[in-house]
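so i finally got all the pieces together for this one. its four components total, 688 residues if u count the protein bits. some of the lines might not be protein, just check the labels. i wanna see the whole assembly predicted at once instead of chain by chain like last time, that was a mess tbh
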Amino acid sequence: MKEIAEAAGVSISTVSLVLNGRDEGRVKAPLAALVREKADELGYTVNPLARSLRTCRTRILGFISEEVATTPYAGGIILGAQDAASTYGYMIITVSTDGRASEENEIATLKRYGVDGFFYSKMSNRIASVPASLGDYPVVMVDATDADNQIPSIEPDEFQIAYDATKRLIQADCKRIAYIGCSENMIAQDGRFAGYQAALQDSGFAYDPSLVCNVLNNGPALRAVDKLFDERNPDGFFCFNDARAWYVYECAARRGLTVGKDVSIVGVDNHRVFAETLEPQLTTVELPHYEMGYWAACKLISMIERKPVDSSSWPNTTAPMPPLDSPIPAKIHCALIEKGSVRS
Amino acid sequence: MKEIAEAAGVSISTVSLVLNGRDEGRVKAPLAALVREKADELGYTVNPLARSLRTCRTRILGFISEEVATTPYAGGIILGAQDAASTYGYMIITVSTDGRASEENEIATLKRYGVDGFFYSKMSNRIASVPASLGDYPVVMVDATDADNQIPSIEPDEFQIAYDATKRLIQADCKRIAYIGCSENMIAQDGRFAGYQAALQDSGFAYDPSLVCNVLNNGPALRAVDKLFDERNPDGFFCFNDARAWYVYECAARRGLTVGKDVSIVGVDNHRVFAETLEPQLTTVELPHYEMGYWAACKLISMIERKPVDSSSWPNTTAPMPPLDSPIPAKIHCALIEKGSVRS
DNA sequence: CTGAAAGCGCTAACAC
DNA sequence: GTGTTAGCGCTTTCAG
């Protein structure tokens, strides 16, 4: 920067002004152009550290997650957040925590590094409260929401997911649609079960409790599904998660039935729906993880910079874009998007 | 820091000396103690940004990956790297790239942020070359290696993985052990196939080519496995990956055979082995992802600080710890570790 | 053994 | 319009 000033025959502050785009009406155009030219020649790049020492802005975002780094879906979210951050000139430091103590630790470290704001994510653990230590920082919750709706969040819409998934089975011409759920009290269970019922009802199907099979794991679960097969002979299955879908696959195979041909499955997961149905065939339907991350980052950056995000440069996606500029706190619910074949 | 100096009645430089542990033989012990006490009282934490402005050391590490963020295994690696980094007072900025251009971009950004060193990872793409732009930075390759062995790396040992997995089938008392491989030319294929053969040979089994079944995907693959079942009736299966294991599960189910009871499977993946065998039963065997990340970070930090890593504080793990202090470049090959039940 | 002083690269008042 | 100046918080010679 000093070199540029010398090369252009101006002072350092002029260079600073120009390079920060604050020259409008302060530095004469030709001079500004000269400065820019010299800067280019010398291959100047800002030193963000030095800058942040003055500005108290680092353009670094902290991503706090419990287990985010251990699911493939989380990766997509972080990827999206990183891309968005990168677009706006930010970087993300991701930290994973296990338990309160380490969380506070990581937060403290992140603060020392001067992050401008935080993502706070709890994978598939939807109601959470943001630690007090994040108090006066901009925060966006990802795949989680706070009890009193104070914090902007982006999270899956369990009801809609199950609704769409069930509709898919109906489209595939299934007549006896089973619900293979979880007998543990999962947070997602209520919304999904309601979505299943609503989809049936909206399509003129009567809800039949004998088609509902809430199971735990392993042998007993497998036998319960086996029994359901024998007694009700379902031709469509809504599965709460992968493990439950597995039982259906196994039972079908034992009967010589092929999933995707003789019976249809739509399996949900915390972050994904996979479907093997006759028509449409062999597709996976997922939450727009990448986009969730992208949106979350845009939201966070807009909070930091106190200006609306520019949605024109958003990624090409089939995911419906939620309105991000709604007043804070905004709750964004995600729908599902198509993702290609389930078998690779 | 100024406040501490005032409170303790010393100068700022003394405070700096003490707080950086460079007081030995320079500042009198009681004075140093006083400084430390005041620092505690005032809740002092260093400002890493200001510090790095002087030292040209940020204690930030850059993690460059292509698709690292999209596999669950990658998450484990990053997690381990982060934990190690955190232990030594470092942070990690992870960037994901797609293609050369964006990679160079991310590298440039990371450099501007003053990272002290780089992880360079290419998931399951084992031979790679580190971009020239990383030239004079400390670099550790993760799950990749360079052609001319110039860069320290940590990567899976395909031969050993397949060897161990096959041994497992032998332990489970399998007599006709099939190899379900990949007819595409995968990098991992050679090592794994060799490991399979070596394990058989070492246990006194004759290698039987008719038990080898290299397939592609979908219907044809399924039929090929079906044929193998009919013709050779294997009781143990080494599967190159998940997809291949799936065909075996399907074929077994159709014959009323239960995997883990009637037949045994050991399935490998780029990063994981899962086994369903009679004895030992229902276990997953994985690469020590977490540890890989941990070790990689230790290695990188030791390169940055030009001193051997302290391995006494390493994470509790059943994974065999590789020697990290071998001369650079060190190639670290990972073995497998037990991980609990395959079905949750 | 301790303190004074310079400066890392940049920004932002405030003069000129 | 442009330059001067004073730091941001810390480290590091170099005197004393």
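The radius of gyration of chain B is 26 Å.
Residues 289-305 of chain B form the longest helix (17 residues).
anyway lmk what u think
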